[in-house]
């Protein structure tokens, strides 16, 4: 009886040890995975024009990106779209300010129109990126590259509207800071899309 009890106890102890080892192994895996993803993002961002901003804006999405160039490009487009939306909303609010001169209001409204196009182009790019298929890969990536390039042009046009000395300095600085950041994010997104395309070239 005692021998049987000891045998059962020994087996139970082995099970506990095995379970504990599995939990520790799984936990270690979860800790390593984000590190690998983060390093993948850092390495990928090094090929962009603004690597520091690239890594800063995408590293928080490491657990979603893993080590996928497609998911990385997709995330970059989403981050850029989010920034475009918030920038457009800020400019709509500013354009309604009674402290602005007519010239500044006009520039704001023109810029909001350009950003509306940017938002549409980024949305189309994100949708296309999520449905890329092998047989139509080249055509679909080309569409994305065209739309993101167009978004960059729209942002440049918006920024140009706030050049010159006939603008309120504070307004000009606030707007151009936002637009420049958005343009840099868009440039990085385009670079990551190009990198993804090159892997299938």
Low-confidence stretches: 1-5, 25-32
The secondary structure category is mainly alpha
What's the end-to-end separation, in Å? 71 Å
* Oligomeric grouping of the chains: single chain
Portion in strands: under 5%
**What is the number of strand segments?**
0
Global outline = elongated
How many DSSP helices?
7
C-alpha-based Rg, rounded: 25 Å
**Major sheet: size, sense and barrel closure?**
none
**Proportion of helical residues:** over 70%
Strand/helix succession: HHHHHHH
Provide the residue-averaged pLDDT: 84
List the helices and strands and how they pair.
Elements: H1 2-45, H2 51-58, H3 62-65, H4 69-95, H5 102-129, H6 137-160, H7 169-198
Would you kindly provide a written description of the structure presented here, covering whatever features stand out?
The structure is a single chain. It contains 7 helices and no strands. By secondary structure, the protein is an all-alpha fold. α5 runs antiparallel to α6 (137-160). 30% of the residues are buried.
